[in-house]
Amino acid sequence: MGSNKIEYGFLKEIGLGSENLGGYINGKWKASGPVISTVNPSNNQTIAKVTEVSLEDYEEGLSACSEAAKIWKSVPAPKRGEIVRQIGDALRAKLDDLGSIVSLEMGKILPEGIGEVQEIIDMCDYAVGLSRQLNGSIIPSERPNHMMLEVWNPLGIVGVITAFNFPCAVLGWNACIALVCGNCVVWKGAPTTPLVTIAVTKLIAEVLEKNNLPGAIFTSLCGGAEIGQAIAKDSRIHLVSFTGSSKVGMSVQKTVSERFGKCLLELSGNNAIIVMDDADIGLAVRSILFAAVGTAGQRCTTCRRLFLHESIYQTVLDQLTGVYKQVKVGDPLEKGTLVGPLHSRVSKEKFAKGISLIKSQGGKILVGGSTIESDGNFVQPTIVEISPSAPVVKEELFGPVLYVMKFQTLEEAIELNNSVPQGLSSSIFTEKPGNIFTWIGPNGSDCGIVNVNIPTNGAEIGGAFGGEKATGGGREAGSDSWKQYMRRSTCTINYGSELPLAQGINFG
Amino acid sequence: MGSNKIEYGFLKEIGLGSENLGGYINGKWKASGPVISTVNPSNNQTIAKVTEVSLEDYEEGLSACSEAAKIWKSVPAPKRGEIVRQIGDALRAKLDDLGSIVSLEMGKILPEGIGEVQEIIDMCDYAVGLSRQLNGSIIPSERPNHMMLEVWNPLGIVGVITAFNFPCAVLGWNACIALVCGNCVVWKGAPTTPLVTIAVTKLIAEVLEKNNLPGAIFTSLCGGAEIGQAIAKDSRIHLVSFTGSSKVGMSVQKTVSERFGKCLLELSGNNAIIVMDDADIGLAVRSILFAAVGTAGQRCTTCRRLFLHESIYQTVLDQLTGVYKQVKVGDPLEKGTLVGPLHSRVSKEKFAKGISLIKSQGGKILVGGSTIESDGNFVQPTIVEISPSAPVVKEELFGPVLYVMKFQTLEEAIELNNSVPQGLSSSIFTEKPGNIFTWIGPNGSDCGIVNVNIPTNGAEIGGAFGGEKATGGGREAGSDSWKQYMRRSTCTINYGSELPLAQGINFG
Amino acid sequence: MGSNKIEYGFLKEIGLGSENLGGYINGKWKASGPVISTVNPSNNQTIAKVTEVSLEDYEEGLSACSEAAKIWKSVPAPKRGEIVRQIGDALRAKLDDLGSIVSLEMGKILPEGIGEVQEIIDMCDYAVGLSRQLNGSIIPSERPNHMMLEVWNPLGIVGVITAFNFPCAVLGWNACIALVCGNCVVWKGAPTTPLVTIAVTKLIAEVLEKNNLPGAIFTSLCGGAEIGQAIAKDSRIHLVSFTGSSKVGMSVQKTVSERFGKCLLELSGNNAIIVMDDADIGLAVRSILFAAVGTAGQRCTTCRRLFLHESIYQTVLDQLTGVYKQVKVGDPLEKGTLVGPLHSRVSKEKFAKGISLIKSQGGKILVGGSTIESDGNFVQPTIVEISPSAPVVKEELFGPVLYVMKFQTLEEAIELNNSVPQGLSSSIFTEKPGNIFTWIGPNGSDCGIVNVNIPTNGAEIGGAFGGEKATGGGREAGSDSWKQYMRRSTCTINYGSELPLAQGINFG
Amino acid sequence: MGSNKIEYGFLKEIGLGSENLGGYINGKWKASGPVISTVNPSNNQTIAKVTEVSLEDYEEGLSACSEAAKIWKSVPAPKRGEIVRQIGDALRAKLDDLGSIVSLEMGKILPEGIGEVQEIIDMCDYAVGLSRQLNGSIIPSERPNHMMLEVWNPLGIVGVITAFNFPCAVLGWNACIALVCGNCVVWKGAPTTPLVTIAVTKLIAEVLEKNNLPGAIFTSLCGGAEIGQAIAKDSRIHLVSFTGSSKVGMSVQKTVSERFGKCLLELSGNNAIIVMDDADIGLAVRSILFAAVGTAGQRCTTCRRLFLHESIYQTVLDQLTGVYKQVKVGDPLEKGTLVGPLHSRVSKEKFAKGISLIKSQGGKILVGGSTIESDGNFVQPTIVEISPSAPVVKEELFGPVLYVMKFQTLEEAIELNNSVPQGLSSSIFTEKPGNIFTWIGPNGSDCGIVNVNIPTNGAEIGGAFGGEKATGGGREAGSDSWKQYMRRSTCTINYGSELPLAQGINFG
């Protein structure tokens, strides 16, 4: 396909070649592990080769990172913010190129690829301000001549393991905050998106070098499960931020907990949209489309379950099947494409198996339902009419498959929304204040993201991102997410010469 | 011993008899499990008998509690605060009696017993104010006609598993907050302090009943490991707050994580005091005494390791051995006693074994070192001179044993402080601002509690209580600990008719 | 009237007699100013006599208060909270009696009198929790070895000047917060409600005395404008919290500003309710009634302006006139009364003059419009149809007079709402999310209180109470109102030996 | 002098010529008022000519600004942040040139000129992050089916009147925050630093234009007292932020208060440094030098009073006079100069008069004390030994004059520190924790800035800047200063169909 020619242009712009070293270790690019090929999911042809890191490389990287941590944590937070500001500017200067490589290697459409890079830039801007606001507290002490402080200090090293579907934004959520908080970062990107990992790391590395800081402050590792497991086990890594499936996440948590480390988990979602009888149907249909087929259904916030009030069930379904039929599936770098390929051959196979399973459980395919014959991993955006009690509905099938179900009352719809193991995102479409506030209140959605009249996906960085239950409970990006990247101390300073005790206890 | 006669007086005052039912289930006192005896650790004689709950009782309790949770979470938070205020008043009215039963059954001296009850009362007062301050946030949205909210809703049910050493204060830390946050509480007290559990529960139950609220809002269960395990496994319990050893804590966490529940862990401590060459020695010695022998060394915040600057090593040691020799060990209810018995025969045996191990690792007993011949579980407050590299120093021996070690520089002392698996509490005695701020800063103590010129123990409720590393990472009582008892939702409400996307993405 | 007999009962219960001293000065009851009579507004008969304070008394009081301030500010905040808790309990024990005296002396109906006392009690409970949460901040410094703190310290003395319409609740808003913040309080109640002032002060005084604290921590002064002026001028009083008319408030502010003191102003309101075409009419009518005739229209949050969408104009008006006709005007202590007398003969006269002025400006009286012949200060609840351009509509007539006007669009209604000098409270009745969020957003109401589907009056203590523009800008009760009662210091501590400068400046 | 040739270089770089229009009005450069000359204080020669605005220009500007306010307040805050980010980048690109023009026109040395511009840049970076954190609150309601919100909305227009001594940093403190908060800004710079005003405005204007936003969002006015008075009176300007003397500030406040507008005042300082007997003398001397002679003593935070413990009085004085003698006074643009000229001929005259007054009140000149013969406004850095009771010590003499006094105890030193009308900044030099915490506590300094072991001047932007008493009480830059630029609404939304009342009142 013609797109290859275009590709090489922007690859070079950001320092990528046909062969690339996949480790930024102790401030140097090196890697002594296996050589892998990274492929374009639109045609499964090799884009470039990448040498992954070995466990020896890992050990060298962590060793240097531990040393760098001593330096970095003593740099005043606003000065760390200035470094993150420069990282943001470096990314901004390469926004389009980076967006293109995300699109090429991951398979999402270009506006989404650029949007993803914009999200790291936004995170950098946000983190700069935050670097002067990592505030502790002075809490009134009940004892005279005592001062009680809640102080926040850096953890040390934060490991960030990201997934293919957001090959760089999730790094941004974590690393921007972790860095201003005074932590070194060890990043393992997805094994199938090494070019994005390398390209982003190069820009960060340049900033560190320009400021005469140890490169080991940011350690980047292309590699597979072996490296992920090393991170999970490594007690030098105080926090492991993991994005991926609930299954792998639970295993990571187990390993990290056994060494009393901290975890921040962003796991599977199984997100629902509820459309009430009083909803703005046009708004709902546009939102469902974006939520269900955006990123080819491979967002953790993708809408997978659609609950329609019986009174507008058929209307919404008719409109939705109408717009589904106009969706252009194709090369994600081409203008006009709305849905690119699934990320990998395996994804395509899982889609096919998933459709079989759906049918076997009584699911009725309304639109789509097939893979698309081609060298790439394309599949049809799919709508399925199914019973909420079908077991498949409780699981996350990572592709553009939407289950449609009917309900009669808000209470019933909320109960359905909450009836799956996952608890990431959820939306309602309604025009009634009573419905809105019930939905976001104690008897409403049990998810971490609870939207009204917008899709389940497309979060802003100012809020905390993450979900409950099998989604893992972590929160990233805005709000007070930064607290997870720091160690809290309750400090009481006696500056008098007496020794009064708390609760008025008299001892001796 | 004469104390028995006094005992029965205050037991009756708070509704306890010679035989007691150990379950408050669905608003009724019932229990169908084994009958156990609770003993006075000063003489190992039975105080009273208690029937523990069975798993059937547990199931009935949880079933009722789940129903009550639907009601309680919809009560406005300030109204929940009013209930907690009444609980505080009920406890205040029985302060001395409750303090006595704590002292009798746990073995701590009476001022500490009363102090512990005062701590729940303080928590109630604090939680009342908090009930109008469980504030969410309104966060600026980047999209026109959108409002972004961070809303906090109740979790549902909070399980609280407490330990013998603080048989009621830890319940207070958790339950007062959990209740105002809108959660029902399921409490399992320590198997060896059931009378405290029952007495406290009775007062809470009366308040619920007086306000025509379901008793199942507070479910109380006397029982052993089987009940604890049931709580850990039960997916109806959204948060399990566990206080106990690191070993059991890790097992609880594993069980709870496997069902993607939440844990709040308060585990082992191994707390150090550092005395610098410029310290106020008198203040330090008084503090070390309270920290090392208070509660007979059975606080999680007990000082177990003492680091003395070489220049004041002998001076401090001389003064300390001097005061140790004057410490009165005896009946905790008697005036003048500073150190009561260990809580159980097993504790006394562990103490004896611990001393042997200490000696075998080169520890030199400076004071104490023996159990005391008597029907009770008394042991001698003990000071040991030992090398920081001895393995015993890394472990928590739950009794009044203090390891003394020498250092030369602040950096060395901090490194020693941080060199154990546990990370709960720590103190420095110094008069230099440079030392103080280094100690509480990024290169200082890695503990959750970082004190200056006060002991390691005796925390105020306004701060967050808890520790890092093998101490489990939970935070209880003040600061923003309440957030752990609630579910956070990031809500975005679109009140316009357009559908702008975050990061300026243009889809379709 | 028969009520007099009942009166004397509850007066004695709270320590009031037929003659009373109006000053609590340096912990003693004394007063050497003029003797005044306080009257029952239902019949204008004397309830009791009160000796007001003289300027000499004032000086003695302030002098003692200044000394007490040195002690009180050094008491740890949570200990100050414990005193406020006891004050709350003392009030709670006399809730009904205090409510009755409020009702008797001020003229509001008994449920409102009791509600007002409950509000101080709520404030006490709230302030107790707050006493452990008057948190400062630790802010990251850009300089190594520097710590930046934002510390909150007591101001010293807070003067509180309250008005007749809330003779004790407003004291509670201010004093509970001021006290836990470490300030002494100097209270001047309204000249026409001295019994409430004395009764409340007696309970506070007893608590201080019981705790062996100087009575001068709370200094209470019955008196007139001369005493108010002394407070405004007195540079020993760091903050003057004034509740009253915009006119007097501006004069107080001028006086206080001239000595660079601080003011907290709660001045006139001119509050509107907007009823949209999609509103729940029943809910709106009930709310308008409470907002317009509650406390006989003498709340600062009383609804004085009613904007009805043209499509529901007549419907609402019909229902409203219907319920107005059923309103029982009479003795506020009698069960069933909804509207008591105006507070004073002067108020009644102003009402009569106001009605004349309204008529002269084209106002059409739909209901009421007359004073009621009796010994008391009763007037008829009144509805007036008038043009929004009539000058009277811009002013606050302190009685139960409601101006009704018509509008066509939300924008128009908001513009009308915002078109008066005052900016206290405002409400909209609507069922559309777009209307709600527009109303509370940047293009909505410009008031300090912006309600939806509830009346303009009846605020909860958890929020900040107060208004913009001619209402004076102060905020009392909840949220971060406490900050106004404290002095903020930005503290930077250099604990190193170098002298780095901010903004990287190199000097010398 | 040779510097003129250099000057014109950087002037052109930032768009300045020999004749300049002094108004940016409705997005256009225009001015129809008097033409003034701006002079170099080093030689009193004209740098360039500037046409000031007339009252007609003012009116046109405000009219356009009012229209622009409607647009700007509806732009989402993070988008406003993006504009401020671009302003920061525009300033960063011209950092050295702007620093030079500040130095040339104001007279401060170049490192201080550049530092001042860096401060606006820092403010921009900070404000970008803040634009996603202008958080309101969701406060628990005591009523079922009610939601209580504290919402922050833009004020509308903020007037900023700045002084010559910080001709652009103070604009930055105000405008960066005001803009992200959604307000338009009307800026009147000092009449004697119009080139700085114009240069900074040009960069801001370009950013607005590039983003197709109305230029009237930022309205800039060169002019004198007449324009300042117009701003104070103008009820379209919701907040007037004024920096200047206490005397003028009080007058501004009076004018603004009369229309119930808001004021933010940064007025006179009279700042002290206390040196305790245990201080690091070397650190203290270096700090005093910077604090007393930096910016030629023309900072509001300049140290004017020095309290030395009697035991180190002579030592400090000897060292201080030693370093004073080495201070190079001269052209502020020349490398090596520490002290430039006073800003104006009038300042030089006031200095001379001030020295006479000092002498007449018993002051003994230890160093300096004279003006320097030259075309410029140079004076000698001066140290005066004087009694704390001399009236001159209570006043702010705006030049490099330092009063030295002796004390015996910390309590005495604090009392002296607090004994002046002003309350801006203060420092202590000590190595004792007891001194430090007393100093920052309730019995310590009564200033807004309370430093330890650093000078009185040189604040970081992360903290709140401002002072108490005659300093005016305003707070700018960091912490929650942004709240002053917004309007707070307490919103209660009833989304149920019932009408429960607060405090449990039952009405009707």
Quaternary state of the chains: homotetramer
CATH superfamily of the largest domain in chain A: Aldehyde Dehydrogenase, Chain A, domain 1
Percent of residues in helices of chain A: 25-40%
Strand ordering within the main sheet of chain A? 3-2-10-9-8-11-12
Based on secondary structure, the structural category of chain A is alpha/beta
CATH class assignment of the largest domain in chain A: Alpha Beta
How would the global form of chain A be characterised?
globular
Can you tell me the CATH topology of the largest domain in chain A?
Aldehyde Dehydrogenase, Chain A, domain 1
Rounded to an integer, what's the Rg of chain A over CA atoms?
A: 24 Å
Strand content of chain A: 15-25%
Corresponding CATH architecture of the largest domain in chain A: 3-Layer(aba) Sandwich
Distance between the termini of chain A: 85 Å
Rounded mean pLDDT of chain A is 95
User: Given the structure, what is the number of helices of chain A?
Assistant: 14
Biggest interface and residues each:
A-B, 94 and 93 residues
Number of individual domains of chain A: 2
Contiguous low-pLDDT stretches of chain A (5 residues minimum) are 1-6
How many strand segments of chain A? 24
Largest sheet features of chain A? 7 strands, mixed
Organism (chains A, B, C, D): Ziziphus jujuba (Chinese jujube)
InterPro entries (chains A, B, C, D): Ald_DH/histidinol_DH, Ald_DH_C, Ald_DH_CS_GLU, Ald_DH_N, Aldehyde_DH_dom, ALDH7A1-like
Domain Aldehyde dehydrogenase (chains A, B, C, D): 34-489
Keywords (chains A, B, C, D): NAD, Oxidoreductase
